[in-house]
Amino acid sequence: MVSARKFVLRYIVVISCLVASATAGVQFSSLPRTLAVTVTIISSAPMAPNVAMAGRDQLVVSWWVNESSSPAVSEYKNVEVKLCFAPVSQVDRRWRKSNNDLKKDKTCQFDMSEQLPYSSNIKNNTITWTVQRDVPKGTYFVRAYAFNASGSEVAYGQSTNKNKTSDLFMVEPISGRHASLDIASVVCAAFSVVSLFAFFLVEKWSAQKAAGQKK
Ligand SMILES: *[C@@H]1O[C@H](CO)[C@@H](O)[C@H](O)[C@H]1NC(C)=O
Ligand SMILES: *[C@@H]1O[C@H](CO)[C@@H](O)[C@H](O)[C@H]1NC(C)=O
Ligand SMILES: *[C@@H]1O[C@H](CO)[C@@H](O)[C@H](O)[C@H]1NC(C)=O
Ligand SMILES: *[C@@H]1O[C@H](CO)[C@@H](O)[C@H](O)[C@H]1NC(C)=O
């Protein structure tokens, strides 16, 4: 007989897995690239080309529907623009890792707009965003997602090529205080590993206890 505790633990695992798969997001690879996106840095005191200073400089993003990519515009309800880490700033940082499941994807962590209503009458859309102070030093690009009426991503566009190697830009902090944010992320990642380990210890412990009770 399996102990009641072990039985319960097992079902918690099974149920969590079912919940996880039921809430899986849209696959990025399934999205057509029908939006075109450009980004320009507006700097009051340019440091170097393609460098924006966090907390001071602005990014002007233009996006439009690329008519020659056969876009299914009738589905497009909203569009959201995000700032995303380029591969070079994701290396060895699990907390920025790309995932084809958009619910788990950590490439684009900074919202540059809310979900803005899409209008087919506007042929070219522009948003201006001041690079927030909490954006860490790194290499970035901009991506836009089109959402349908039920809030699922249905198309995208980005300011770089498919491999995310061209037209990238850098964000530099004005002060050096951004290291603390990276440290916080490392601590969070370590904490999740520790809690997983604790979970297995509890299960092992209750299995041992159950075996002990049988004797
Ligand atoms: C528009 O879409 C076509 C076909 O997919 C593609 O070849 C072209 O590069 C795109 N243009 C822009 C500006 O993204
Ligand atoms: C939209 O505006 C941007 C920035 O001015 C420009 O580079 C781009 O070519 C425009 N797109 C279209 C389709 O006119
Ligand atoms: C939105 O897209 C999702 C995923 O493709 C689909 O399941 C859903 O039915 C769509 N909703 C509408 C209103 O089209
Ligand atoms: C994109 O990346 C793939 C796989 O890493 C590579 O085979 C391909 O040559 C790259 N394409 C470009 C245009 O860099």
From TrEMBL:
> What domain of life does the UniProt record list for this protein's source?
Eukaryota
Give the record's GO biological process terms. nitrate assimilation; response to nitrate
Signal in keyword set: yes
Renumbered to this chain, the signal peptide range is: 1-24
Which keywords describe this protein according to UniProt? Cell membrane, Membrane, Nitrate assimilation, Signal, Transmembrane, Transmembrane helix
| Classification via Pfam families | NAR2
A molecular function (GO) term? nitrate transmembrane transporter activity
- GO cellular component assignments: plasma membrane
Give the InterPro entries listed for this entry.
Transptr_NO3_Nar2
* Role description: Involved in nitrate transport.
User: Which family does the similarity line name?
Assistant: Belongs to the NAR2 family.
Which named protein is this? High-affinity nitrate transporter
Read off the lineage from the record: Eukaryota, Viridiplantae, Streptophyta, Embryophyta, Tracheophyta
Q: In the UniProt record, what gene is named as encoding this protein?
A: NRT3.2
